[in-house]
Each structure stands twice: as structure tokens, then as C-alpha cells.
Amino acid sequence: MGKKHLPYLLWQRLSSKGPSAVMRIGVPKFTWADLYHSLVTISWLQFLGLVALFYIATNTLFAFAYLAGGDCIKNARPGFFPDAFFFSVQTMATIGYGGMFPRTPYANVVVTVEALLGLVGVAMVTGLAFARFSLPTARVLFSKVAVIAPYNRVSTLMFRTANARGNLIMESQIRVTLVRNEVSLEGEYMRRLYDLKLVRRETPIFALSWTVMHPIDNRSPLYGCTAESLIEDGVEIVVTLTGIDQTVAQTIHSHHVFTAQDILWNMKFVDIFHRTPDGKPWIDYTRFNDVTSP
Question: N or C: which end of the chain has fewer CB within 10 A?
């Protein structure tokens, strides 16, 4: 495959695995300016592992500092590393059992420095943990497939999205973009993006399910396309959804990508809304992805 097809390969990797899947040249992978962002976005296991590693390393460093002062800790065995290490743990955590305490000016200076660093460290870790817990997240479901079927006698691209939480997403907005390969008149290969016009682009309250529809009329980028042409052009449908979470009053967002193979022709989604014998409505998410012929 030639160089002119490289943008498509990059787009495929971005769509399937995210930006981290692309190798970047000329840009540093990590800078200290991104430290906060990295600590907030890494997994909880990695975060707790880094905190534990930093905690052990810091107490080990101060333990050696106490050992360097000779017999400077009362009731500690001189030159015995475990005693110095656990005295450092008690000092950093401000536990103060009273069994061991500094006995020289040198030890008091080290204790003062360690207590200050301990207060700063606890504050920073607490702030980072709160920031991680308070990050707004969305539990938005997208159907595994999209369908093309008549709606009001117009061929229409449709897919489902649903709010998996029991609260509301206020002022929800959805944007659907078609991405495909094109060659300019000059023979330049490019990956073109087209915004798709929707029957409804926003909803004031997103509570249960939302069927997003794009009419394929003569103004649609999908007009005249077939299943084979979509695959040949490497078509993808990129969906982004934003809204305000009712519980935390913060903006949340979610996204999904449908490939050409995910688009089913002349099919429609099965009805997932039902009513109990006494008239109460209920929704069957187990059939959220099910389709049938019109």
C-alpha cells in the first residue's frame, strides 16, 4: 500500500484504538506539564501502585537519613534499618505512638522536613483521588449496528443510543459525521468528513432510548451509495454525544464508530418498548441490538 493510503490507516487505528495507538514522532511522549493529566487518566491500579511506590521510596529515603545521624532515635536500635523505616512511617503519617522519638537536633530537623512533606503529600494524593472520583463519565449505549430502511417512504440511516444510568442527561446533542476516502482532481488522496443532517439533533431530556435518523435524500452524502461502495470507500460513521449529567451537573460525552460492515441494509430495529398488563411501560435492553426485516 502506497504512502497516499497512510492517512486511512491512521484513521482506522484512531477509530478502533484511540489516539494512543498511533506512534508520534517529534513530540515527547511525556512532559512534566502533563503530570496531573497523566495521574488523573491512568487506571486506578496504576494510580494506587504509583502512590504505594512513592510512599515506600520516600520512607526508605528518610530511613537512611535517620541512620546517617547515628543513634538519633530514642528506643530504636542503632543502625537497624527496620526501626528507622517504621519511625519514618509514624512520622510521615503523624501517628506518634510514643515508643520512638527523636533525641538529637539532627533527628528533629529531619522529622520537621518529613512532617512537612507528609502533609503536602497527603493533601496532593487526596486531591488527586477526589479529582479521579469526580470526573464526569457517561454510560451511554450505542447499538452494535446501524440500519438503512424506509422511514416515511424515505430511505433512512438509523441507529440506537440509550442512557444506561437511571438519571437524566439534560440538553443532549448528537453529531453524526460520515468519513470516506476520496481523491481530488489533482490526484491527491484524502479522508473527507461530511456532517449528516438528522431528523432530530438534540433532545432536552435523554432518559431511555433515542433512535437517531438521517434521511438519505439527494442532498445526503450517502445518496446513491450501495453496501459495496461503502466498503470500497472505507466509509465510517462517527457519532459524538454530549449532554449535562443531571446528578453532578457536569458535561459528559461519549462517542462511537460504525464501519461500513456495521451498516445493515433493508433491516429495521425491533421494538423494545412494551407495557405490562396494568399499563406500566417498560423497556427491554436485551433486544437493544436486534434487527428484523421491514
Answer: N
On whether both 105 and 209 belong to a single domain, the answer is no
Q: Is residue 24 part of a domain?
A: no
Residue 278 lies in a domain: yes
Q: Which residues contact 30 (CB under 8 A, 6 or more apart)?
A: 38
- So what's the pLDDT on residue 22? 61
| Domain extent for 284 | 140-292
The pLDDT value given to residue 173 = 96
Residue 161 lies in a domain: yes
Q: Are residues 44 and 115 in the same domain?
A: yes
Interval 22-68: pLDDT, tens: 666 776 777 777 888 889 989 999 999 999 999 999 999 999 999 99
Number of structural domains the chain divides into:
2
Q: Are residues 243 and 284 in the same domain?
A: yes
